[in-house]
Amino acid sequence: MSLLGSYVQRRSLLHAAPLWGKFLAVAALSVTVLVLNAWWMTLAALGIVTVAYTAGARLSLKLMLGPLARMWPLILILGAFQVVTAGALAAFLVVGNIVVCVLAALLITLTTESHRILDGLVSLARPLRFLGADPERFGLTVSLMLRSIPVLVGSAGDARDAARARGLERNPRALILPVFIGAVAYAQQTGEALAARGLGDAKSEYDDDDEGDTR
Question: What's the whole-model pTM score?
């Protein structure tokens, strides 16, 4: 399971729910816990999210807690800072509210196919077409971003393993340079693939049209 959550096929109430309903529910829950900022609301929201995972989506607690295991350094540092500067209650509220929002958002990706999410984002961007926005291009950009994340994470892992094998795990250059080169190469390959399918940027397309008119 990736950090953003991968779709898990189930027959459940949340899997069958419309995407707009899930978005509204997550937005309402997140806004409520952040605005009220009360310990009882944070506890209630954690309970609601847990029930949504186990009963509403029929997902295991392992799938629910997996992303938190990857976030624990950030949670630990943030919680410790809040304890020192504002007290234990403030630390619980800050960390607890972040956990609620993250788990609620991940529930969307765990119960919705990626193409449905992208279609929803494209539909959401359509009202901005009168401002010059291109909803389809926006959806393509998000899709490329989501596909790039595991590639870059894998590249970082390979660089770390290679550096460790050569005894250079503490050398920043041995860790960063291969990832940078791999990212540039991946971007170039992606750009060439898009250009081969006629999906270059809008400016290039207009420039080509202007040159054709001139000729």
Answer: 0.66
